[in-house]
Amino acid sequence: MTVEVIPTGAALGAEIRGLDLSKPLSDAEFEAVQQAWYDHIVLLFRGQQKVNDDDLIRFSRHFGELDIAPASETDMAGSQEKSRPEIWIISNVVENGKPIGALGDKEAEWHTDMSYVAEPPMASVLHSREIPRQGGDTSFANMYKALEELPADLYAAIEGRYCNHDSSTTSVGELRVGASAVVDVRTAPGARHPIIRTHPVTGGKSLYLGRRLNGYIEGYSVEESEKLLDRLWAHCAKPEFAWTHKWAVGDLLIWDNRCAIHRRDSFDGSERRVMHRTQIKGDAPR
Ligand code: OGA
Ligand code: MN
User: Fold this and answer.
1) pLDDT in tens, the chain (286 residues)
2) Which ligand 1 atom lies nearest to the CA of residue 126?
3) From ligand 1's centre to the CA of 172, what distance in Å?
4) 228 closest CA partner among 255, 202, 209, 247
């Protein structure tokens, strides 16, 4: 076996060496990858330029059944013609007047993917096809650690509580197709989940917040909920919980949405950034 696991040395993340993901993995190779993933939350595979959409889907399916891509701020008819329902294209590129992908060139604030549905994807896999010279870095933060180090009064305030995860906006804060702007966070659409969840495989407890915009902690006044959410998010965004990846073409990342959040830096919109993503089905958080 040639699978090498090299931890980033930060609070999460490891690089995996010795695998060509354009080829099927053996059972032993996949088991090594999966164990490293549980241990490190985010895995990086460099130099995977040969990986096409079929390979990306085949690799992702090792972890479980795939979810279809989320609704975006535009219908992106262009990209769906070229790709499959399981592939979500993230890009700022516009072709024939139509964006080929979602999220544009703006900053995406800290979030976890698709937590506004009842059974959010357990993982996302992201493969870089084209990368700007600068910016567009993606950061991850370890939510097991964030919970472990949560101040006691904040822990007591959220223990046993549920948060609503708003579905109206994307991670760059834009309204999705067909959604209307939230006027009262208590009645925002989306899904409610426990703020502290237990990982079904590792058994670890982690903070599960979704995204800040339009979040609401049930059982509190809007004002109290806003204060708690501001404190929670400020805590989660501390650099000691995070690791940042600077992309090169061909890099492939898989992360665990159950115990990590992520964000993306903005970049120069005159450059091209093209990423292909899959998302792997998960269970209702508990
Ligand atoms: C995502 C996401 C960040 C990026 O794929 O879920 O937030 O780097 N992308 O484009
Ligand atoms: Mn995301």
Assistant:
1) 689 999 999 999 999 999 999 999 999 999 999 999 999 999 999 999 999 999 999 999 999 999 988 766 555 545 555 568 899 999 999 999 989 999 999 999 999 999 999 999 999 999 999 999 999 999 999 999 999 999 999 999 999 999 999 999 988 888 988 899 999 999 999 999 999 999 999 999 999 999 999 999 999 999 999 999 999 999 999 999 999 999 999 999 999 999 999 999 999 999 999 999 999 999 999 9
2) 5
3) 10
4) 209
- Structural domain boundaries in the chain: 4-142+242-280, 147-236
Gap between the Cα atoms of 34 and 28, Å rounded: 10
For domain 4-142+242-280, say whether CATH 3.30.1330.10 is its number.
Answer: no
Cα distances from 57 to residues 45, 101, 125, 265, in angstroms, run 15, 18, 9, 26
Q: Are 196 and 204 in contact (CB under 8 A)?
A: no
Whose CA is closest to atom 6 on ligand 1? 113
Ligand 1 binding pocket, CB closer than 6 Å = 90, 103, 108, 113, 124, 126, 138, 171, 262, 264, 275, 277
From 275, 278, 279, 280, the mutation candidate for ligand 1 (largest count of ligand atoms within 8 A of CB) is: 275
Which residue minimizes the CA distance to atom 4 of ligand 1?
264
Pairing verdict, β 88-91 and 102-103: parallel
The pTM of this model reads: 0.96
